[in-house]
């Protein structure tokens, strides 16, 4: 199938990705728009993984105060260059992450940030809940693992559903931005305040 400039333009408007990457995605998926979007997202995850080792010495600190003045967030998000840090799209992205934290109240950035003692405590609670279930040990292990994954999804920022698009997780939203801006992006730290 011939890939037209209009198709490339449409895909670019939907994804915000560069024209050459859009053309490549459409060629790889025979002009199927939905598959091309999926192709770009997968490529974005691969690109994000490649870039994840690069240092993020630049970035911004964003402060967000919710409209009720009862919740406030400060977040530091790193990128590679001052050029991207000053980019309006990057700053909007950081603000969206701050709003995510205000709304979804994560406790940690990712699984690696969760203290070992917290994980062990959660595992013990889940095991205690199942001790009278008469289920085999291997089944209990799988249930505990499932509950622990749910715990991470609720309490780790990168694993939460993104509040503005529940079809993706926050880490996918970050990967999309890495693909769009062409730089490694990292959430360095955040703090959330709430009255009460």
Would you write up a description of this structure?
- The N and C termini lie far apart (60 Å).
- Strands 1-2-5 form a three-stranded antiparallel β-sheet.
- By secondary structure, the chain is an alpha+beta fold.
- It folds into three domains: 5-51, Helicase, Ruva Protein, domain 3, CATH 1.10.8.10; 58-109 and 156-194, Elongation factor Ts, dimerisation domain (Tetrahydropterin Synthase, Chain A), CATH 3.30.479; 115-154, GTP Cyclohydrolase I, Chain A, domain 1.
- The protein has helices at residues 5-15, 19-28, 33-51, 82-85, 88-104, 116-130, 137-155, 170-181, and strands at 58-65, 71-79, 161-162, 165-169, 186-194.
Number of strands: 5
Q: Return the average pLDDT rounded to an integer.
A: 87
Q: Bin the helical content.
A: 40-55%
Largest sheet: 3 strands, antiparallel
CATH domain class name of the largest domain: Alpha Beta
Number of helices: 8
Distance between the termini: 60 Å
Principal-axis shape: globular
In the CATH hierarchy, the architecture of the largest domain is 2-Layer Sandwich
Order of helices and strands: HHHEEHHHHEEHE
Quote the CATH topology of the largest domain. Answer: Tetrahydropterin Synthase, Chain A
Q: Structural class given helices, strands, pairing?
A: alpha+beta
Strand content: 15-25%
CATH superfamily of the largest domain: Elongation factor Ts, dimerisation domain
Radius of gyration: 20 Å
Strand order of the largest sheet: 1-2-5
């Amino acid at each position: 199938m011939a890939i037209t400039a209009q198709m490339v333009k449409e895909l670019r408007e939907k994804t915000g990705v560069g024209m050459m990457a859009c053309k490549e995605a459409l060629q790889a998926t025979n002009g199927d728009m939905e598959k091309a979007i999926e192709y770009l997202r997968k490529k974005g995850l691969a690109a994000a993984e490649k870039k994840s080792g690069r240092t993020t010495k630049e970035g911004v600190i964003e402060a967000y105060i919710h409209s009720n003045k009862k919740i406030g967030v400060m977040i530091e998000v790193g990128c590679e260059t001052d050029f991207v840090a000053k980019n309006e799209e990057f700053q909007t992205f950081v603000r969206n992450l701050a709003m995510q934290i205000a709304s979804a109240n994560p406790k940690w950035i990712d699984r690696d940030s969760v203290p070992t003692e917290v994980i062990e405590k959660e595992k013990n609670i889940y095991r205690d809940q199942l001790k009278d279930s008469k289920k085999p040990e291997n089944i209990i292990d799988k249930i505990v693992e499932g509950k622990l994954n749910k715990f991470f999804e609720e309490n780790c920022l990168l694993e939460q559903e993104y509040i503005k698009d529940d079809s993706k997780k926050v880490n996918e939203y970050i990967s999309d931005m890495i693909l769009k801006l062409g730089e490694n992006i990292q959430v360095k730290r955040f703090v959330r305040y709430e009255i009460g």
